[in-house]
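Write out structure tokens for 3-oxoacyl-ACP reductase.
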Amino acid sequence: MSSIQRTAVITGATSESGIGVTTACRFAREGWGVVILDLDGEKSAQVARRIGEECGVPAFGHAIDVADEASVAAAHEAVAAEVAAGDLPPVGAVVNIAGITSPVSFLDTTLELWHRVMDVNATGTYLVTRAFLPQLIENGWGRIVNMSSVSAQRGGGVFGKVPYSAAKAAILGFTKALARELGGTGVTVNAVTPGAVDTNIRVGSTPEQEAAIARDIPVGRTATTEEVAAAITFLSSEDSSYLTGVTLDINGGSHMH
């Protein structure tokens, strides 16, 4: 444990086939401590415990509703207590993955759905970042990686639609503005924009739709969650020290700009 220097805090990381769990596992394999924050606190703890045992790193899981300020504060306090007790190394990376989709058309989008998609994706990214950022600045080193989407760049998709695209575009603006504000602090802020990924977040897509998506990608297939996790851990590493405000596309060439 003495060689472990930093902890990665990852939201939205309990789906075994999802980007979040894959990312948590990759951080752990690279020697980071891991904290998993998700709505299901019990599942978060179970997944974290498994990753910790398999990789020999400290790992904890807590419940969080990223769209609720009090819930975010409680999760942050729990992590801060674990760091203070010496159970975790200091937090070095915050990875905002938690999100929900909006698979209905614009005219079928209720105000309630609009607010919920914005709250979880955009406001959640803001609240979690705000909670953990002061300690990163105090430590003089930190990485914030935000999950956006190719939908923010080209508009919509099989599962994206208008609220999702708008929320993910907001995350890109948030990333760039915060990166500029934090210049010189040692904390970088970057975003990843996956295209189609082999994950169960593509709610409502049919095999035919997924095949059509793959045909439209120059490399001829969708991304794996491991490929997205590799990008996230790179942006959280020492090697990415001169990258901030970057939008890293992971789409196999489906969107070029």
